[in-house]
Amino acid sequence: MQQKTIIISTVIVAALGYFVDIYDLLLFSIVRVQSLKDIGVADDQLLNIGLSLLNWQMIGMLMGGIAWGVMGDKRGRLSVLFGSIILYSLANIANGFVETVEQYRWLRLVAGIGLAGELGAGITLVSEVMSKEKRGIGTTIVATIGIMGAVVAYFVATHWNWRTAYFVGGGLGLALLILRISVYESGMFKNIKQAEVSRGNFFMLFANRELFFKYTKCILIGLPTWYVVGILVTAAREFSQAYGMAEVADPGRAVMWCYTGLTLGDLSSGLLSQLLKSRKKAMFIFLTLSAITIAFYLSSGAISLSQFYTKAFLLGYGVGYWAIFVTIASEQFGTNIRATVTTTVPNFARGSLVPISMSFAYLQKYTTLVGSAVAVGAVCMLIAFVALSYMKETFHKDLDYLETI
To answer: How many whole angstroms separate alpha carbon 399 and alpha carbon 138?
Structure first.
């Protein structure tokens, strides 16, 4: 009974932590237009400056992903859950006070560093406290509840000022610290603390050819998700204008509908992997669905707003494989570097938005907004399919083992 209580507590706290993480992570995309206008950014600079600030946030997540991941394997999973949430909560409260683009830039960087630790530490804990037969259900619950944070962020930003929305996000994060008290450290991590083995050695992933390629493939299968969220949905306003729509789409509402789809997609893909007893097969099905929904979105014409938001919802459902994505990363590596991998992989996938958005902006010099999106999207999908084809199945894998060079 005690073990069951620990498992339930761990899943609930990890899910709520990821909920606040996603709330804060997507809030900028939701309030981008209004917040930038309020601090004096001209209309013709909203997209470029918005993408620049988003890139700073993602750079912060790359930095934080490595730092928190290493800490998770050296000091424990709980240290990351406490440290990361304090940092991103305070940073997001500070975001509510920005008056210049420069202030916004540095605070999105700091927030990104803090946001980088939550998901990886939570998924690692859940994966290690649950059985191999049921851990997929646990990670699916975490991802499904967590993704809903973006939907709540939209409604908060709709009913209150964008500054207040930042304050709410920071306050929710600080309130979560109380729940952290009920979470216990992973037994697998406790067992290796006294072992003479390298823990949290990020460079181990580059010193061994097999580990390096396995690690790289884990990152690459996540590219389509942030291409969709960071380009197609965040720039919904500009895409609706390019399609010649009578009404301009609201990026915040597009994000909300996309993440509603993502929530259902994560639930579906996670349960599908349990039904098929295969992470790889479920991932292949959803990558195929992603390609179809992206093509459907990019073939839009002068459609109505409701049709546009329906396409945003379908986009989200198609890339709703985040639960499987992070579970695969957690299952691929040994206990001594599992937190490092599970924390850095999703953040490197998020960080891929930097070269993706730069490529997207560069190609617009030679083609249209839509043409640029088609080219970048095709490359992201091709890379993800190739990476998945070379991955090993991990559904039945025992996680109680160590990695050595």
So the answer is: 15
What distance in Å separates the CA atoms of residue 356 and residue 226, rounded to the nearest whole number?
9
List the one residue out of 75, 82, 114, 88 whose CA is nearest residue 181: 82
Query: Quick count: other Cβ atoms within 10 Å of Cβ 364?
Result: 14
pTM equals 0.79
For residue 44, the 8-state DSSP code is: G
Q: HSE, CB side, 13 Å, CA atoms: give it for residue 116.
A: 35
DSSP character at residue 97: T
106: nearest Cα among 96, 90, 95:
95
Listed in sequence order, the residues at least 6 apart from 69 whose beta carbon sits closer than 8 Å to its beta carbon are 80, 117, 120, 200, 202, 339, 340, 341, 342, 343, 344
Question: Are the CB atoms for 122 and 176 separated by under 8 Å?
Answer: no
Report the sign of the C-alpha dihedral through residues 279, 285, 288, 293, in that order. negative
Average pLDDT over residues 239-249: 90
DSSP 200: S
Q: DSSP alpha helices (H): ranges in 204-337?
A: 204-207, 209-220, 223-227, 236-242, 251-276, 279-298, 305-318, 322-332
Residue ranges in 304-395 assigned as alpha helix (H): 305-318, 322-332, 338-351, 353-363, 369-389
Alpha-carbon distance values, 83 to 113, 127, 180, 332 (Å): 11, 20, 11, 25
- Provide the token pair at 82: 């406490």
Distance CA 399, CA 377 (A): 34
Domains and CATH numbers, the chain: 2-183+200-389 (1.20.1250.20)
Cβ 343 vs Cβ 21: under 8 Å: no
C-alpha 82/C-alpha 131 separation (Å) is: 25
pLDDT digits (tens, 9 = 90+) for 1-52: 466 777 777 788 778 888 888 888 788 878 888 889 998 888 888 878 888 8
Sorted by sequence, the CB contacts under 8 Å of residue 305 that are 6+ apart come out as 240, 245, 247, 249
pLDDT digits (tens, 9 = 90+) for 326-382: 888 888 887 777 778 888 888 888 888 889 988 998 999 899 999 999 999 999 999
